Amino acid sequence: MRIDYSELFSMPLPRLGKIANEIVKEKCGDVVTFVVDATINYTNVCVSRCKFCAFYARDEGFVLSLEEILSRVRNAVSMGATQIMLQGGLNPDLGIEWFEKVFSAIKKAFPNVHIHSLSPPEIVFLSKLEGLSYEEVLLRLKDAGLDSLPGGGAEILVDKVREKISPKKCMSGEWLEVMRTAHKLEIPTTATMVFGHVESDEDIIEHLLKIKDLQSETNGFTAFIPWTFHPGNTELDFIPKAGATRYLRVLAISRIVLDNFRNIQASWLSQGFEVAKLALFFGANDFGGTLIEESVIRATGKDFKPAKIEEIVDAIKSVGKIPARRDTYYRILQVY
Question: In this model, does residue 331 exceed pLDDT 50?
Fold first, then answer.
């Protein structure tokens, strides 16, 4: 029997936060984790051309060379990064062999780096481009060095919403099937949600229930990361940016609905440090990454600079929590 979660959207925010915070304390105590990472956007050439995206090439696009990618990984590792995320557009000129070459080269040069890369839309695109099943694509990439999949490209896992904002990208069933296949192959993944555009409250609940059901089936998601849509330089720039109270409400609801997820991440990148600190009392137990490099949010015109380890540690301590650096599997590497 399904629980009706819709009333959570009209509940007073302090009460909602209290419920979410009690769940966090029971699951995670006062420890708040973070990871030292970099996101390398390897191409902005994309046939999807989603309406919410400011990053894809309107004119001439780029593809990073292998040398440039390795140079950026080297820089990130020199700054303590343990996780590298490669994400880009759906570029028909980049077949699976290109990714195998890149992943293999990264692992050869930096064997201890965790490659947390390629979201489900990229896997679906490679599957169609190469005439391979999701399993075949994922196995080849895993053999080349892929360690885990990020949950990007989920946006809202409701097809009527996807048809409005990203009609050329994979639909919700395809996203879920890539994740189901990855979990079967013992490739862990995260799950995400981008809200604050054309979705309804009911769509948000439907999204959460879909990933909750898959987690019950596979237990393959390591974390959930919700963040707000940034309208700058997009085809949806007429939509007002969702505020902090909406973000905290959806975050708290996510914690309540996703009772089979341990880790929920605050988004300092989309909300700023002050709201991210508040998020630690509205359902989040993780502060995300340092993001030594990132280009997609920056393309919206939002100010961006990487977070220093000391800044994250100080932010977490300032609200009475215990900071801990983790790896991609949420294993603690150092407590501060």
Answer: yes
